[in-house]
Structure formats: C-alpha cells, structure tokens
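Lay summary. Proteins are chains of building blocks that fold into shapes, and those shapes determine what they do. In this project we predict the shape from the chain. Here is one chain we studied, written as its sequence of building blocks.
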Amino acid sequence: MTPRGQTQTALVSIGAAVVLVALKLVTGIATGSLALVSAGIESSGDVVAAILTLLAVRLGGQPPDREHPYGHRRAENLAALGEAAILIGGGVYVVIEAVGRLSSGNDHGFDPAWYVFAVIAIALAIDISRVLVSLRTARHYKSAALRSNAFHFAGDMAGSFTVLLGIVAVALGFQQGDAIASLLVAVIIFAAASRLIYENARVLMDTSPAAAQEEAETAIRALDDVELRQLRLRESGGHYFADATIGAAPDQALVASHRVADEVEAAVRGALPDSDVVVHVEPLREGLDLRARALAVALAEPAVHEAHDIAIYRRDGRCGVSMHLKLDAETPLAVAHEVAERIEAALRRESDVDDVQTHLEPLEEPFAVTAATDDAAAGRIAALVEDRTGAAPRRLKLLATDLGLVVFVDVVASPDTTLEAAHDMARRLEQEIRRSRPEGSARIVDVVVHTEP
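And here is the predicted shape, written in a compact code that computers can read:
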C-alpha cells in the first residue's frame, strides 16, 4: 500500500510545477526573456517528472508478487532515470537557443519590468518549499523517486537564482546577461541529470552500497561465535536485501543454528532498519576439534543420515578415529562401502590422523508398537531396578513390537553422581534387564534407561 504522505507530496509537486510553468513561460514570452522561457521549459519537464514520480511511488508501494519477489520499488529508480532524460532534453534546447542569440550579435534585449522580479520571487518561494517538503518526505519513506525530485527542484531553484542574476544584469545595461544566464541554467540542468543517472544506475546495476555493507558486516562480526563467510547486499528504493552465509559447528543442534541465524538477522536489521535478511548456515570445517571435524566430514556425504559413537584414540601424538554411519536400509553394500571409503580418506588427510575405522548400519524404520500387557516381565524388571539402585523405578513402560519388547525405564541416582557414573549404571542395568528374560518369555529387543537425580 502506498504511504499517503508520498502520494500527497507527489500531487503537490505536480500542482507546483504547473504553476511555475505558467508563470515563467507567460512572463518570458511577454517580455522576450530567454532565461525565463528556458526556465519555463525546464519546469514543464518538472510536470512530466512529477507525474512519473507519482506513478512510480504508486507502483513501488505495491507488495511483492510472484513475478516481482523483491517488490516494485525499483520503479522509482526507473522514474528517476526518466526525469534525467527530461532534464537533458531541456538543457540541450536551452544551450542551442542561448548560443544562437550570442553568436547572432542580436542582443534580443527586453525591459525587465517589476512584475518579472515578482514572478522570480514567487518561483523561488515555491521551489524552496517543495525542495524542503520532498526531502523531508523522501527521508521519511526512503523514496528514491521523491529524493530525485528534491534534487530536481533544487536545480530549478538554483536556475531561478541564475535567471534573477541575468535579469539584474540586463537591468544594469548588460543585454547579453539573459542569454548567459540561460547557459548557466543549462549547466545546472546537466549537473542534476548526471547525478540522477549516476545514483540510480548504480542501484539498477546492483552495485553494493559500500557504507551499508560495512555497517551490516560490523554488526554481524560483533556477535559471539559467528563466522561470517559472505554477505551480499542490494538496494531497492531505499530498502535493503541481505544474503548472509555463516558457519556453525556441525554438531550444533538445528534449534541452536536457527537461534544464531535469528541473531544475525536482528544484527543486520539493527544496522539497516529497513532490510530483508536471509541467512544461510553452513557447517564449519576450520577451528574445530577432531571429533567435530570427523562429524562434519561424515555428514557432508548426502547418503549418511547419522554419524554417532565417534571415538578418538591417541598414541604418541597421533590419532585414530572410529565412527558408526547410518544409511538407508536399502542402500547396496557396494555404494555404502564407497561412501565409507570417501569419509575415511578425507579423515586420513587430517594432519594428526593415522587410522580411520567406520561401521555401517542401516537407518531404522519406524516401529509399529502396541502397549505390552506382560505384568510378569514388568514386575521382574521393577524388582531388578530396585535391587540394583535401592529405589523403585519412577517410570516403567513396555511396548510390544513384531520383534519383541521395548523397555523404557526411569531410575533414580544421587544428584552428586557424575554423568559418567550414571551412564555406567544405566549400561549395566540395560545388560541385566536383557539377560533377565526367562526361557519362553517375550524377547527384549531394546532397553532405554533414563537416569534422574
């Protein structure tokens, strides 16, 4: 939706330009002043330029759609280039007429009556007011079209001052002052057009805005534990689109990586408030310990769904690595072996690694389960847990699968127990629960022991 202030500013610009055209052209033709006629021609270009600005602001304010995913704001930059073309055309006409008068030797003198100065005073007052209004509105809405209009009007104002000087010169007896003032107006016109072309062509060519790029990079690098690999920034009508690529530890959870990406987005928006940020997270390969590097190498293989039980063996300053790799159960052994070979070769290229061993496993399919009703097995397991830990299990759950029973049990340990000791207790319990199955009872295919303080 187009902000109402932008539309109102564009409409006021059109009305002001129409008034100036009428004042300058009528007065210039009536008095024979080339400077005023030229200024009127330039202001007639303002009418077209202001209409283009209004159309560009309306189009640029439309939300993104399927064909324009980045929005329509660059319509404003195109409109600014259109204004530049109008300015250049007016400037060329002014130069041709002024040179013709100066070279012909005919001074084309005129009598600068009092109302000529009144017209210029009115034109200056209108120019000053619309420059201030356009700049304020452009700054508020970050509108390229309104900003280019402000530059255009500022040039118009400078041209009015120049016309005033030329007419004063004529009033003092220097009849060629009018034509010379016209040439000076042409210089102002060409300077304004050049600036418009330079600024808006850079935006349309996706030239990275250096100051904004530096601000965004500084904000990202100020974050802890974030490696910025690439930042691409583009501008569209005062709105920034940022694509950032950052590195994260390969063993970092998805939720943690997403949180880091959110922090990067917030940092960029803090530096560039009107911006749309996309963050791509890649696994780090540098500055990691050997375990994390091994995981990164394994997960870089598309066929590997999971890598676990990574163990590091150190001897005389050298290392060996072992890990378990899970692939789709239907993967041919030859293909799985090639994957493992690539992973092992990549790890052997690490400077401190001598040996690598991999164990291939099928990725488990989801189990179809039902609640087990084996009270005897439940009682036996509960008694075993209480005997080994001194307390009844806090929770005991049995599930029946086609292959046998799955046991989930929560056991109590002292709050001061180390994680290593708690894990060792859970491992021993798991082994004993598996061995506790009497002859002829349901097979126990898996045991999950959860320790709590």
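What the prediction tells us: The mean pLDDT is 79.
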